[in-house]
Each structure stands twice: as C-alpha cells, then as structure tokens.
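Case study B.
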Amino acid sequence: MSSNASQLERLTFFSDAVFAIAITLLIIEVHVPHLETRDDGAYLQALQALQPSFMGFALSFLVIGALWVAHHRVFGMLVDYSASVMWPNMLLLMTVAFMPFATALMSSNPMARVPELVYAGTLLAAGLLQWRVFAVALRPPFVRADLAPDHVAATRWRALGLPAAAALSLLAAWFAPGWNNLLLLTIPLFVRLFYALGLRRTQRLQPVLAES
Amino acid sequence: MSSNASQLERLTFFSDAVFAIAITLLIIEVHVPHLETRDDGAYLQALQALQPSFMGFALSFLVIGALWVAHHRVFGMLVDYSASVMWPNMLLLMTVAFMPFATALMSSNPMARVPELVYAGTLLAAGLLQWRVFAVALRPPFVRADLAPDHVAATRWRALGLPAAAALSLLAAWFAPGWNNLLLLTIPLFVRLFYALGLRRTQRLQPVLAES
Amino acid sequence: MSSNASQLERLTFFSDAVFAIAITLLIIEVHVPHLETRDDGAYLQALQALQPSFMGFALSFLVIGALWVAHHRVFGMLVDYSASVMWPNMLLLMTVAFMPFATALMSSNPMARVPELVYAGTLLAAGLLQWRVFAVALRPPFVRADLAPDHVAATRWRALGLPAAAALSLLAAWFAPGWNNLLLLTIPLFVRLFYALGLRRTQRLQPVLAES
Amino acid sequence: MSSNASQLERLTFFSDAVFAIAITLLIIEVHVPHLETRDDGAYLQALQALQPSFMGFALSFLVIGALWVAHHRVFGMLVDYSASVMWPNMLLLMTVAFMPFATALMSSNPMARVPELVYAGTLLAAGLLQWRVFAVALRPPFVRADLAPDHVAATRWRALGLPAAAALSLLAAWFAPGWNNLLLLTIPLFVRLFYALGLRRTQRLQPVLAES
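Model:
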C-alpha cells in the first residue's frame, strides 16, 4: 500500500508540474513592446494593443488554475490508482500543455472565428478528458474509505461542468467570436449544477442499491 | 488529518513550482547579443547595453525569491488549510507569473514612466495578495499548535512590508521613473517594522483577551 | 534506509521535473500565426501549414510521456539506488531535454532526411540510455523485496522495446523520411514482445539457478 | 523536528525545481534552422553551424547536472537547516538561472574572449556560492548524527573543486578563448583532490580536537 501511495504521489507530482509549467509559460507568449521613446502616451497605446493578450493570459490562468484545483481535489480523495488512469491523464496534460498555443492564437488574432473555435475546442477536449480521468480514478477500491459514496459520485458528475460550458462556448464562437468567452463565466454555475444533480441522483438510487 | 496534510503539501508544491518557473523564466527575456566580430570592445558595449536587463533580472529574482521565502515560512506554520485560501493563492501566483513580463517591459524601456508604474503596480498587487493569503491561512485551526499566538499574529502583520514598499515605489515612479526601484531596498526594513508593530499590538491586546 | 529513500525520492523528483518541463516546452516551438484578417479560410490555411508541428508535438508528447511512464514504473520498484545510476540518468535527461529541439527541427522541415535521422537518433539514444539506467537500477539490493525476480528481470528486458523501434525508425528514415515515424507505433508491441521474451528466458533459467 | 524536516524538504524541492528548469531551458537558446529544401547537404551544413550551440548545451547540462548532484549529496546529509543558508542558496540559484544566458552568449559568439570570460565568471560565482552554501549548511547541529565528522569536513572541502577549475578556466579564457573550456574537464580531478586534502587535514586535527 505504501509503495502504491508513493507511486500515486509521483503521478500527482508529475501532473502538478505540467500544470504549473503550462500556467507559467502563458506569459511568454505576451510579447514585450520595446519603444524608443519615453512618451507616456506611446506606452499606454502599446499596452492597450496588448489588451487581448492580457485578457487571454488571465482567462487561461484561471481555466488552468480551475483544472488544477479540480485535479488536486479529486486526487486528494484517492489512496491508490488504477493503471488505466495513466494515459487518459497524459492526454489531459497534453491539452493543458497545448493551452499556451491556443491562448496565443486567440490573443494574437482577436475576435477571429477560427482561433476562438480552436480555443473553445481545446477547453472542450480538456474538460472531456478530465471527466474521463476522474471517472476512471474515482472507483471504489481506489477511493479513501472515509468518504461518503454520494459525495464521490457527485464529484464525478461535477466534472461535467467544464465540458458543458466549453461546448456552449464552442457553439457561440461560431456566431459571436470573442464574446463567446463570456460563457466561460458560467463554469462555476455548471459545476455546482452538475454536483447537485449527481448528488440527488445518487441519493435517489442509494436505497435501491442498499436493498439489492 | 494526514490526508489534509498531504493536500496542503500538494498546494505548497504547486505554488513552489510556479515560483520556481517564474524566477527561472526571467532570464529568457534577456536577449542574447549575436555579434559577427571577436572584438572585445564590441562585446563590452553589447553587455553594457544589456545592463538594465541584468538589473531587472537581479531585482526580480530577489523580489520573487523574497515572496517565496515568505510563502515558505508561512506555509511551514500550517498543519491544514482552509479552502478559501485556494483562489487568493492562485491570484498571487498569477501576479508572480506576470513578473517576467513586467520585468522585461521595464528593462527594455529603461527610465520610462509607464513601464515603471506597471512594474511597481505588479509588486503592489503581489504584496496585497500575499498579505490576503497569509491572513486567511494563519487562522487558529490551521496553525501548528506549538507556535506562540503573538508570533503568528506578527507574521500576518509582517506581510504588509512588501505592499508598503511597493506603494511607495509606485508613487515615486511617477516623479522619478527608474530611481523609484531604489525604494524596494526598504522592503527588509518595512518587514521588520511591521513585524515589531504586530508583535507589540498583539502583546498589548493579549491580557485583555486572556481576561475575557 | 530512510535517508536513502529520501535521496531516491529527490533523484526521482528531479527527473520528473525535467520530463515535465521538456514535455511542456514542446509547445513553445510551435509558432503562433498572427494574421491581419478575420477571414476563416486564411486561418484554416495557416493551421494547415502548422500540421507537421502539431503532429510533432503530439508524437513527442507521447514518446516523452512513455519514457516517463516507464521511469515511474521502474523507480517505483526500488527502495534504494546505486550511485552509479546518477550519471546515466543525467544523460537520459539530457536526451529528453534535447527532444524539443529535435522535434522542432523535424517539424519545421517536414519530410527532410537529415532532420528525421536526428529525431530517430535522439530517440535511439534516449532508449539506450533508459535501458542502461534500468539495468543499473534494477539490481538485487536496490529492488523492493516483495517483487518476483522474473518480473524484475523482464522489466529490464522490456526497456529494449523503445531502442528497437527507434533503430527501425532510424533505418527507415534513410529511405522514406517522414513515413518512418509510423514505425514508432510499434513501440507498444516491441515493449510487450521483449517483456515476454525476458520473462520466458528468466523462467527457463530459474530452475538452473535454484539448483546451483 | 518533523516540521523542520518538511521545511528543509521544501527548500530542497524549490532548489531542485530551479536546477531542473534551468537545465531544460538550455535547449531553448539553440535556434532551430528552417530550410526551404530537402537537400541533405544543406541540413548537414546548418547542423554544422550549430555545433558550438550543441557543445554549449552539453557542457552546461553537465555543469548544472554536477551542481545538482553535489547539492543533492550535501542536502541529503542534513536533518535541519539554518535560516542563514536561505539567501546564499537563493544567490546560487540565481547564478544557475543565469546559465542559459551565459551559455547562449558563448555559443552564439564562439571563440570570442568576453563571452568566454562571462561564462567562466558565472561558473566561478556559482562555485563560490555553492561552497558558501555547503559551508553554512554542513554545521554540527544540522548534519545527520550517523555521518563521520571527517567525511562531513571533507565534503565541505570538496566544494572547492568547481571554483578552482572555474578560476583556471577564467584565466585561460583571456589567452585562449574557447579552448579554456577544456580545463573544465579537470573538475572531477579537483573535486577528488580537495576531498582528499580535506580528509587528511581533518584526520590530522582530530586527535588534537579529541584531546581538548
């Protein structure tokens, strides 16, 4: 058990490192203006032109941050892991590592449809992979014994919040590229909604399960 | 308790990784001169031209280093954490991740007012967020039982040192852009001052608290 | 023993960090197109032109991921390490750190022979070094006592899978540059084949060893 | 004690992360050639032109690797740490983080004197700071009780090996820029020499100390 715990810790560690590197690399894609003047107006204009990059940086920082917080929460519920979590987790990390590119593509070409579709599509892929990782990870033998089963089940459901919001954003990107990102503000709502749905559904099923 | 400790460790770990990446990425923004000569004078001139970049690298390395040392000290005082520390900490990490940009903006445009304001403003934001994180983290149920309460309270106060120095630097950037960074040398003084103030204030209040 | 375990952990940790950084840096070499239009067709064309970069990113992510998964598996079988594992492991990390360059060289110059040879050669070097690291690491005093000796021996054999596939890919790069990468799809087959070979060979030898 | 151990672990961790990032960032400074041909000769020529960059990458990888191996060895001898190790260690990490710049400066301008001086000077600074960190860290109350005192003392001496070789290389850079790096091959010799010197000196002093 102890060696499984240490292997789980290392998997967690590697994932954390990729999250941390991707989130910090976001700033590299914001190009530093180099002006040959000391005129305040010129700098304000240059920073103004970078506004889409700043917004992309902040948005992606929060999104990768939220992915990490969820990963942190779920892996904290485990005492062991199935080998079948390894590759879905690796693919999740691949989408996370792709985020600096998707962010820079969107920020360098503001309000253009294809970049917005690529960005929302990356989020959708990350969300679906995260949902898959959590579904595989949160299975009975691997979960801490002291956790309520309905909380575990609802945590699996809650992972549908991000892909739901990302799917909406993807659709909206077609009609209102750029503005569609506002829909990502609904992520916290969707997450709570799916958690509540999962909780209710499990609690309705539990008596049935207990009887059988 | 043990699983909380491991979750705290992972939060600490993720934060450490972002600090470490941001501090190491600083050097990427220093552009390597490529000369087609072997003349010593040409190289000395090229390095001379990079002096603001070297100073920005060193300054930001020390500032991020100080932020990390403080984070390391405070999180070492904890045995558990409140979920409400998660997002202020994430925003603190966002300002840390933003530092390579702010540094390069300042270094590429030496003595210009707007870049200096952006740099000092980033430090001020980082300082205030750090103060907030520490205030949320250093609450009774989460702090190690063996620590003196007045030391804990004074550690909360001490976090006001960086934002105070950064606020001064921000003001001075308006009047003497570039030179204002010298005020950051006062950070160690302010930190000690606020620690002493916090200690004295807590010790004056303690008898009152003990009586009540 | 405990301090050896912590030294092993730190070696593992450092290796994990290099794997994680190299895998995440891959995306930096994919250059973000910056178009002055909102025309969908122009963006699709620009992304089309980046297809070799996307494929290189995905391929190298999976290869470095597989190297890490193997490293994770083998180091999880250890309780201690020999000092002689240190430098072969450092050289393995050097080839891993070189992967972003080899990937970008191949992706920026698709279907060219020399870049494909460099890429396959880097993989071959990484595979041989990994095999060497595992052969040194998986020796009796360092391996967990609860592991079956034939599984340990077969795990050493299994590390021949990657260099075998990389050698094939290197050969094929000469005749069909670009297409040779398809041979890397055989890595999972080779890995299983060598594991089975190693298992069979060890089991045939074991009675002899037990008698002696 | 346990919380000191965990604080020491986190300091070690942060240091490891900076070492790992700096060592992996080295490859970013090797610029990927992008040719519009499939002619083998053109690629071989382009790679030939990158030879100084490859050699700089390999040299700095080995040097940072050696710095990390030494750091790993010495911190593995500790059970606790003095607060006064914090800032010398941070300055050591600053020189490590500076290495990608120094390497690229040297590689982009091969055989030029000033870049070689900068590179050798960076190594000298790193070596002296490492020696300082180890001297502060390896003091009685912080060192594991089971270690022989003369081995601890000799480990402090051994840290003089890198700065000695770097000082020689710095001198030689003036007269034979480029070739001076060959002197870095003497690092392993110097390290062993200083270790032996330290061992002999401590063993000669020990009877005296034991009597007093």
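The interface with chain D takes residues 3, 6-7, 10-11, 13-14, 17-18, 21-22, 25, 28-29, 86-87, 90, 93-94, 97-98, 100-101, 104-105, 108-109, 111-115, 118, 177 of chain C (CB under 8 Å). The remaining cases will be described in the next quarterly update.
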